[in-house]
Amino acid sequence: AVVSTQSTGNYLISPPSEPDLPNIAAVAASYTNTEKETTVKAEFIIEDVQKGKDDGYYYCVVIHNGITHDDHVIDPFSIARALLIIADPCEGQCVGDRYVGCEANYDDGSFKCKDKPCYEGRCGEYEICVVEGDSDRCSCEYDCPLRPDPSSYICTDTCEFFFSECLMKEQICKDGIKRAVDPNVVDPLGSCLSPTYTEATEDYMTHKVKPGVEVLLDSGVKVLGSPPANIIWLGSAGIGDAPTVVAEGELEYVAVAESSTTFYTAAVFQCKKEWVVMHEIQPVGDTPVNPELPDGLDKFASCSI
């Protein structure tokens, strides 16, 4: 429908109709305007807009038949259009148990979901969610008993003692280091001990001996601790060669020097911790300890020219 809003020839066409250009041209031809320029301001206000009824394109038609500009006759009419989209930014959004509402911004079409206080997954695995009015916060303050029963004492797989599992979880929350209760420790208070290492032990030692000589290699561990540390000895003929297990559970290992350089590694594992000591055995000289003479050659014979 064509709706006249001003006698000067300003028209508005509302949806769903589109401009009837021949009809508009005929209307424009019937107008005579002797002014050079005419400014028209028109507003088209729709109250209580409804989706599916008021949305669509709105056309503004301005008739200016007979108007010239810089001695040139301009078109008899001009058309501009605007698209009206009626939509709720929150429609279909913020659904699920996590949310309690949705806030729409009709200026830019955005929306913001309003979370339910302490919704599932709000805090980390070991964090505690605390409700404070309409908001919440994540905390690592556990309400653990100050004097737990001795039966609650635990030793962790990181060789740490805690008075209770509650205190262990509180510490995990604070420092982020994963821990678990070690079920193999019978007496956590008296047995949750880390290995004791020899103070003078270095992590890489070189031994220069003659081939065939026995070398006592030290793992660097004096006391295995509780739960006991596991020691694995690995041997290889070179740095790039794949090592093989030569012994297990020994604080020391006796190796025999070869005619070429060999490597031995003591790997100590306990409570997610690892201690590694490498030994390099370098042969001194090329002559074996007990050289054997070729068959048929007397050991007192000499060669002369």
Which helices and strands appear, and what pairs or packs with what?
Blueprint: E1 2-4, E2 10-13, H1 21-29, E3 56-63, E4 68-69, E5 72-73, E6 77-84, E7 99-105, E8 110-115, E9 128-132, E10 135-139, E11 154-155, E12 161-162, H2 165-175, H3 188-191, E13 196-197, E14 204-209, E15 214-218, E16 221-223, E17 230-236, E18 244-248, E19 252-256, E20 262-270, E21 273-283
Parallel strand pairs: 14-21
Antiparallel strand pairs: 1-2, 2-3, 3-6, 4-5, 7-8, 9-10, 11-12, 13-16, 15-19, 17-18, 17-20, 20-21
What does the model show?
- With 305 residues, the chain is mainly β.
- The protein contains 3 helices and 21 strands.
- The protein has helices spanning 21-29, 165-175, 188-191, and strands at residues 2-4, 10-13, 56-63, 68-69, 72-73, 77-84, 99-105, 110-115, 128-132, 135-139, 154-155, 161-162, 196-197, 204-209, 214-218, 221-223, 230-236, 244-248, 252-256, 262-270, 273-283.
- The strands form 8 sheets. Strands 14-21-20-17-18 form a 5-stranded mixed β-sheet, with no helix packed on it.
- Strand 20 and strand 21 form a beta hairpin.
- The longest helix is centred in the middle third of the chain and has 11 residues, at 165-175.
- It is elongated and about 120 Å long.
- The chain starts with a strand and ends in a 22-residue tail after the last strand.
- 12% of the residues are buried.
